[in-house]
């Protein structure tokens, strides 16, 4: 079973702060960002206390800063309630008169029988229930099904990374087939659901017209299981909008039933089938379905699906004709410059309204980058572009920077991680950043920029009027020698909110220089990522003190 990824070892000092997983920083695709702290809600009236609720809440553990103590004021001083991490939280919109959304959110905890007995009444009441990686098996699923039948308020259920198996999933789905069920989002990712367990899916989708999101990734459904799922998706009572099927052992044979769904449904907005070996023939069939589609698909993710340059011609027509499509993810497919040349006419078409294009690890070189620069200069709709993991080189960086200065370019996020860039490109990026007021995020990690390259960037970003908010410089051969410039930048730049310096050769002297700036009231930075940076207890004490004095600052290590 795939458990939650443990934080990395700190080496000299073990840190309990949030961590960014190795995969998040190494992948070409966008990593999930840790959530920012939220201000506590104001003027929240606690519910009336009941004896049975007090007994129940006494066994819960609350995250510091969560809304529970305010919402559950009558019980916040109960003994036996340690505060290590979130289990119960309420989302409150300060300006809303609606009651708060109550959430039960547990991750990475093996639940004892006593703990399970405490939680079952909450599963019967709360609108959002997440029990991810909690060691649940089929044995618990009968209880879950019974609790769900008693909960007419449920809108979201997540049981990710639990070994439920076909039998357990069946019991859970039976619990959702109540006439009063109004669930909108269901996540059964990595729950050991197989083809044999998919027979119940058509009936479930037919009986849950409120269901909008279904996450079944990391389950070995296979083509036969997918066929059964599609039977449910074709039912007129099904109004699913988002379907995630990553790592489901799908092949080209799965694309025909998926294409049939695309032709028939008007509701589907997001389809994720990344990391399935569909191949050229399968993707071509999927594109045929999209070409005749009744739906208004907005997001299509085909990362690592065995696409070839020939498929780019198929996708060209889709991009040109589907004005609703605003995100296309094609990463980790060997498209090459030839594929990009086939795709670009569609991207340039007036009918294309694409906002996000992910082309990480697609075997693109300077030639393909030159074609993409034409898109950047002409398409004002394009806001995010990832070229991470392609061998572009410094000349491509120059072309990209020139394009970013053109009036027609409205790009806000550029990812050129692991693109064989050197310090020589930093002059171009620096010059561009002093003039471009639209780019908000620049990902330069895993390039050999060195101290000289980072110093050039700092000099540019230290000038008045720059607007970049997020800068990634992880694994860029940065040493303590660049920290003076970085420390000065943190005091002079008023726009930068997030800085990643992970996997660089920083030691105590460099980190202390950074902390010196972060301690100043004039520093506007909100998040600093220092994954795989080693320091001594002296630095750790300064970090603890800083976190106490500036609660709005998040340091991830």
UniProtKB/TrEMBL annotation:
<dbReference type="InterPro" id="IPR006553">
    <property type="entry name" value="Leu-rich_rpt_Cys-con_subtyp"/>
</dbReference>
<dbReference type="InterPro" id="IPR032675">
    <property type="entry name" value="LRR_dom_sf"/>
</dbReference>
<feature type="compositionally biased region" description="Pro residues">
    <location>
        <begin position="32"/>
        <end position="49"/>
    </location>
</feature>
<dbReference type="InterPro" id="IPR041302">
    <property type="entry name" value="LRR_RI_cap"/>
</dbReference>
<keyword id="KW-0007">Acetylation</keyword>
<keyword id="KW-0597">Phosphoprotein</keyword>
<dbReference type="InterPro" id="IPR050637">
    <property type="entry name" value="NLRP_innate_immun_reg"/>
</dbReference>
<keyword id="KW-0963">Cytoplasm</keyword>
<keyword id="KW-0677">Repeat</keyword>
<dbReference type="Pfam" id="PF18779">
    <property type="entry name" value="LRR_RI_capping"/>
</dbReference>
<dbReference type="InterPro" id="IPR001611">
    <property type="entry name" value="Leu-rich_rpt"/>
</dbReference>
<keyword id="KW-0433">Leucine-rich repeat</keyword>
<dbReference type="GO" id="GO:0005634">
    <property type="term" value="C:nucleus"/>
</dbReference>
<comment type="function">
    <text>Ribonuclease inhibitor which inhibits RNASE1, RNASE2 and angiogenin (ANG). May play a role in redox homeostasis. Required to inhibit the cytotoxic tRNA ribonuclease activity of ANG in the cytoplasm in absence of stress. Relocates to the nucleus in response to stress, relieving inhibition of ANG in the cytoplasm, and inhibiting the angiogenic activity of ANG in the nucleus.</text>
</comment>
<keyword id="KW-0539">Nucleus</keyword>
<feature type="region of interest" description="Disordered">
    <location>
        <begin position="1"/>
        <end position="50"/>
    </location>
</feature>
<protein>
    <recommendedName>
        <fullName>Ribonuclease inhibitor</fullName>
    </recommendedName>
</protein>
<feature type="compositionally biased region" description="Low complexity">
    <location>
        <begin position="7"/>
        <end position="31"/>
    </location>
</feature>
<dbReference type="Pfam" id="PF13516">
    <property type="entry name" value="LRR_6"/>
</dbReference>
<dbReference type="GO" id="GO:0005737">
    <property type="term" value="C:cytoplasm"/>
</dbReference>
<comment type="subunit">
    <text>Forms high-affinity heterodimers with RNASE1, ANG and RNASE2.</text>
</comment>
